Amino acid sequence: MPQSNKDSIGDPAHFVGLVGCGGMGLRHLYGLQALQEVAGQLPDGGQGVAVVAVCDPNRDNAEFIADNAEKLLGLRPDIYATQAEMLAAHPEINEIDITTGSASHHHLVVEALEAGRHVLVEKPLAATVRGCNLTLAAARKSGKTLAVAENVRRDPLNRLVKALLQDGAIGRPYLVVDYIATGGDSILLTPWRHQKETGGILLDVGVHSADLMRYYLGDITTVSGVTRLLEKTRYPSPDKAVVSEFFYKRWLPDLPDKVEATAEDLLSGHFQYASGAVGQWTIMQAAHSDKRNMRLIYGSKGVLELPPDRSGGPIVLRRDDLANPLKDQGLLDYAPSYRLDPLTVALFGESRPVNYQLSFEEIDRRLVAIELADFFEAVAAGKNPEVDGAEGRKAVAMVYAFFEAGVLGRSVTLAEVEQDQGMPYQQELNVLLGLD
Ligand SMILES: NC(=O)c1ccc[n+]([C@@H]2O[C@H](COP(=O)([O-])OP(=O)(O)OC[C@H]3O[C@@H](n4cnc5c(N)ncnc54)[C@H](O)[C@@H]3O)[C@@H](O)[C@H]2O)c1
Q1: What integer is the mean pLDDT of 74-95?
Q2: DSSP element (H, E) containing 85
């Protein structure tokens, strides 16, 4: 048993155990460092947080994250192979932060909640809707907080888009177009993202867009679409095209020469909002010789053209009554309700930014800081986190609705997907995950 550090860290409000010591585990450490940096600027002085233990069956990864925790946060956490061992050795841990690959989420979330801990879990909440439902039931039973680490909506520019829509900048929203093309036959960061039982690349990438499309315009009711597996063999990317390469560089040399993909890489179809607006969504993760991000929201008075996620802008507003498109301070006239919270202001340095210039690493650590702080505040105040289990499940259900619609050959309602009623595509995954 390693020497415990728990007596040497003073009196923080939050004792955290980190589960999963890969790329996202590292990114959460950077997020915590960003939180520490601005704590003094916050009205309440920020919440004291100590990562006292980490666990990962891969000992090298656990050592790497413990080293980085010491370097970035000033305290070396104890190391364990499993969450169960870590929880048993650290009764003072009140919050668990899960950053493992998606296939393990449901099991780890349920185990931590049943052990009486509050849980923040990386998106997606689970690899299938049934997995999500198990976590929601465990959260209800334990009375503990369950939050999903969905960082993209926390971007100040997404807060601005939401205000523009709410304040009527484009009139009544008619149509959302969300289109991503990238990937070719490259491995996206890790081999597991191409294995079906993890939900694969479409769930991994898609939950961000699904969450945002709901965040912007509310609940989605029906979906029709198809999915395909196009690139069955994938290879390490010949260039450094992935924006988050900085966080993964330690593992890139370990990538195999090739990966046999079982997970689909194209999703395309339509959906309908409860408001009556409609959406058109394509994720093409097998696009050769192309890299494209397009997100447009059309309304009765104009259109918003949105930048790629986590890029800093610009947002462009075109309206029938404007001679020229707006993309700078002028946007603020159409978003009078736009105000950021004190933490986001401290991290981004402005209360109403319309764009910003930061590297991906800097953007990422700020957005992760915001989602972590939201979780800690929710636990401390006994209130709901912004993205709770129910919200996390909606994003997972939205992605699977396209798979299910494709297999069933008809449109599906989000309600039937969320309730896990006779969904044939996920049945195979549930068997692979031991959830049948
Ligand atoms: N929000 C974002 O922008 C974003 C970006 C990347 C990844 N993610 C999410 O973060 C999660 C992790 O992705 P990643 O890229 O860091 O993967 P990764 O493969 O780099 O890291 C996962 C780590 O978890 C460990 N692990 C596996 N099973 C475990 C278990 N039972 N207990 C403890 N550790 C275990 C692995 O050994 C590995 O070290 C995924 O859910 C992914 O979707 C989110």
Answers
A1: 97
A2: helix 83-89
Q: What is the number of the ligand 1 atom nearest to the C-alpha of 207? A: 43
Beta strands in 243-377, from DSSP E residues, in sequence order: 259-260, 266-273, 278-287, 292-299, 302-306, 316-319
> From the CB of 227, is ligand 1 less than 6 Å away?
no
Q: Answer whether 299 contacts ligand 1 (Cβ < 6 A).
A: no
List the CATH code of the domain at 154-358. 3.30.360.10
Q: Is 142 helix (H, G, I), strand (E, B) or coil?
A: helix
pLDDT at 4: 46
pLDDT in tens, 399-415: 999 999 999 999 999 99
Nearest CA to ligand 1 atom 31: 104
**Position of tokens 């159409």?**
334
Q: How far is the CA of 23 from the centre of ligand 1 (A)?
A: 7
Cα–Cα dist 127/124, whole Å: 7
Ligand 1 pocket residue status of 83, Cβ below 6 Å: yes
C-alpha to C-alpha distance for 84 and 419, rounded to whole angstroms: 30
Task: Check if 189 has its Cβ closer than 6 Å to any atom of ligand 1.
Answer: yes
Class assignment of domain 14-152? Answer: alpha beta
For residue 178, give every residue at least 6 positions away whose Cβ sits within 8 Å of its Cβ, in sequence order, or none: 209, 213, 279, 280, 281, 282, 294, 295
Over residues 138-191, the pLDDT tens digits come to 999 999 999 999 999 999 999 999 999 999 999 999 999 999 999 999 999 899
How high is the pLDDT of residue 356?
A: 97
Domain ranges of the chain: 14-152, 154-358
Contact 28 CB / ligand 1 (< 6 Å): no
